[in-house]
């Protein structure tokens, strides 16, 4: 009877859909496993069809950090970002461990040496602000390349200075290159998704800061090698020739940076020309970026972490040489311990911020920063207290150098963690003006170095250990500014969401519809771009073949005899497993899942049209899961035609 036949078809369809749903769940779990291990198992591509090497979110930002590869675009940008910053850090502080040779050659006083140190970190304050605007308008990649290539010239000029004035000028010009830090952080921020951007930013910044430790460690050995090979007995010629190394590093890295990509889907000018990206407006990003109170608070906080790092990097080698009576080579090696903590410590700050952020939201990130910065100040004080009660001539015989190195290393760990925690928050401040906010905070770091150097170390009669104590107290006090950080929707360290009513720390809002520098409109490319891998068995065959298979199934049902038996019609999908289930699918799914796949393909044309409609909806909303798409379709009354789905 017709009713019996229809009920059997309906029951078969229900069972088949249940099998398909189970298979979809298994495939989703498989994709999740692959993505956690850094595989783009869904085959997601950019807007012109280039498949990403890493798994990405709906905005094509990477969801994992895989440092063992340099694949375009995410990891290429990551490695070029930190390497560019590393090069500028290396060159800016290359003179510091060579000061025992440079000072007598040029007749530099302690006051002039301090001024040169301030010039090296202060000259970049304005240019960090400029770099923020550059990152928001033409892209961080080109800003980084220009910064590296242009500052190669003053590095070479260091070889020809004849007095203290020329030395100060060259150090100031070389220091401009530290604006690359803003490009580094802005570039990484647009490449990685929110759950891991703290780790990515912290690692890139930390490995870049590592240049300070490497230069303290390496330059004394470079000096000895150059003197022995090219200038025997001529210390003056030897230290000058040493600057070929940072000059070559700048030039090579600058050219390499141009091989990267501005954004996951392409370069800024290409995306703006295609219509995928809104053209950035400098007036908007400046007004929005400069009017955010959280950005200015982070600016001060960063001044007491990164600024402190710059100050200590300038002072540490001289401290061990003059106070502990160590050789230039050994003093440089011990001072390098401070910078070498960047290898992992800044990443720890990002990890801690991401971990607490996932559990407690923005208040968790703020507390992570507050605790790290307070402990930074405590260990800075302990470092100074180790020798502050001793006469200068007693310190070398006190055997406290080892204890000071240990305290210096722990102090450095919390310095780097505070830096990582700060830039884990920066991307959450203002997406519309990410580059400008990064520039403001980064400039605060260099300004902090100028202030701490001038306030605690510049005086000719100031003891370095006493200066460490005073600076540590200032760090602890400044960490309390974390209590003032506030986001209306998430609250702050001490305040809950909307605790301040309608107050918004973003004083000037961006125009309605204005997107950030990393916002890409993918909707116009949905039809032209390769479809992402579907979490359904229907992706293993063409839809037309599936419809044909289902039609054969229903025809076989129509051919039933009155007694309920079937004609010997060709069996549906299951009789042709090689056609309907690819070898690739068999290689990653269990045998039970393959069996379910073969059974699940025997769907009615109506159900297949439903899946076809889900495909259309998936292209419009690539960030939604299959279950979410089906739920939305069903909430619209189960409609499967295109017009109804558009209403969803």
What does this protein structure show overall?
The model is unreliable at 526-594, 596-609 and 637-648 (pLDDT under 50). This protein is mostly helical and 648 residues long. 64% of the residues lie in helices and 1% in strands. The chain is elongated. The protein has a two-stranded antiparallel sheet. It has helices spanning 2-36, 74-92, 99-106, 110-122, 124-137, 140-150, 152-157, 164-175, 180-189, 194-230, 235-241, 244-257, 268-274, 282-290, 293-303, 306-323, 328-340, 345-360, 362-385, 401-425, 434-457, 464-479, 543-558, 577-580, 583-588, 591-600, 605-620, 626-635, 642-647; strands at 486-487, 491-492. It is built from 29 helices and two strands.
Quick overview of this protein structure:
With 648 residues, the protein is mostly helical. It is elongated and about 105 Å long.
């Amino acid at each position: 009877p017709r009713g019996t036949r229809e009920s059997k078809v309906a029951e078969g369809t229900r069972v088949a859909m249940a099998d398909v749903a189970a298979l979809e769940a298994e495939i989703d779990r498989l994709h999740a496993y692959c993505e956690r291990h850094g595989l783009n198992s869904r085959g997601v591509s950019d807007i012109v069809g280039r498949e990403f090497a890493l798994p990405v979110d709906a905005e094509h930002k990477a969801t994992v950090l895989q440092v063992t590869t340099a694949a375009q675009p995410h990891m290429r940008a990551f490695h070029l970002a930190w390497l560019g910053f590393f090069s500028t850090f290396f060159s800016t502080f290359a003179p510091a461990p060579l000061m025992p040779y440079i000072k007598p050659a040029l007749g530099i006083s302690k006051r002039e040496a301090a001024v040169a140190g301030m010039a090296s970190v202060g000259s970049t304050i304005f240019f960090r602000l400029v770099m923020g605007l550059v990152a928001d308008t033409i892209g961080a990649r080109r800003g980084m390349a220009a910064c590296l290539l242009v500052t190669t010239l003053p590095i070479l000029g260091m070889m020809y200075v004849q007095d203290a004035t020329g030395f100060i000028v060259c150090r100031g010009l070389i220091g401009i290159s530290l604006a690359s830090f803003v490009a580094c952080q802005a570039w990484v921020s647009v490449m990685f998704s929110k759950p891991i951007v703290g780790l990515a930013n912290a690692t890139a910044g930390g490995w870049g800061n590592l240049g300070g430790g490497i230069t303290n460690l390496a330059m004394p050995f470079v000096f000895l090698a150059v003197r022995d090979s090219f200038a025997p007995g001529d210390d003056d010629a030897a230290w000058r020739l040493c600057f070929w190394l940072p000059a070559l590093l700048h030039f090579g890295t600058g050219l390499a940076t141009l091989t990267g990509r501005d954004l996951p889907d392409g370069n800024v000018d290409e995306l703006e020309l295609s219509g995928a990206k809104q053209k950035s407006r400098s007036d908007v990003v400046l007004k929005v970026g400069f009017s955010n109170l959280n950005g200015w608070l982070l600016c001060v906080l960063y001044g007491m972490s990164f600024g402190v790092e710059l100050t200590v990097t300038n002072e540490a080698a001289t401290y061990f040489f003059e106070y502990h009576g160590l050789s230039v080579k050994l003093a440089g090696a011990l001072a390098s311990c401070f910078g070498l903590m960047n290898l992992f410590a800044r990443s720890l700050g990002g990890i801690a911020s991401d971990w607490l952020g996932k559990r407690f939201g923005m208040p968790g990130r703020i507390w992570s920063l507050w605790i790290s910065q307070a402990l930074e100040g405590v260990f800075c004080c302990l470092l100074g207290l180790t020798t502050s009660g001793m006469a200068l001539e007693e310190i070398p015989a006190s055997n406290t150098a080892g204890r000071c190195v240990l305290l210096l290393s722990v102090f450095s760990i919390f310095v780097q963690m505070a830096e990582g925690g700060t830039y884990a928050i920066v991307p959450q401040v203002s997406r519309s003006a990410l580059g400008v906010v990064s520039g403001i905070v980064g400039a605060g770091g260099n300004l902090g170095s100028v202030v701490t150097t001038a306030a605690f170390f510049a005086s000719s009669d100031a003891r370095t250990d006493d200066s460490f104590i005073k600076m540590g107290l200032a760090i602890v006090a400044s960490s309390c500014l974390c209590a003032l950080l506030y986001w209306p929707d998430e609250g702050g360290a001490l305040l809950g969401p909307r605790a301040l009513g309608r107050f918004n720390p973003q004083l000037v809002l961006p125009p309605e519809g204005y997107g950030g520098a990393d916002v890409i409109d993918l909707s116009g490319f949905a039809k032209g771009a390769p479809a992402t891998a579907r979490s359904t068995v229907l992706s293993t065959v063409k839809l037309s073949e599936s419809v044909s298979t289902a039609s054969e199934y229903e025809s076989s049902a129509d051919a039933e005899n009155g007694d309920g038996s079937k004609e010997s019609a060709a069996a549906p999908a299951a009789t042709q497993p090689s056609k309907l289930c690819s070898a690739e699918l068999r290689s990653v799914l269990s045998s039970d899942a393959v069996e379910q796949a073969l059974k699940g393909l025997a769907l009615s044309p109506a159900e297949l049209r439903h899946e076809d409609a889900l495909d259309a909806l998936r292209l419009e909303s690539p960030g939604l899961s299959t279950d979410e798409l089906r739920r939305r379709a069903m909430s619209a009354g189960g409609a499967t035609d295109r017009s109804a789905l558009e209403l969803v």
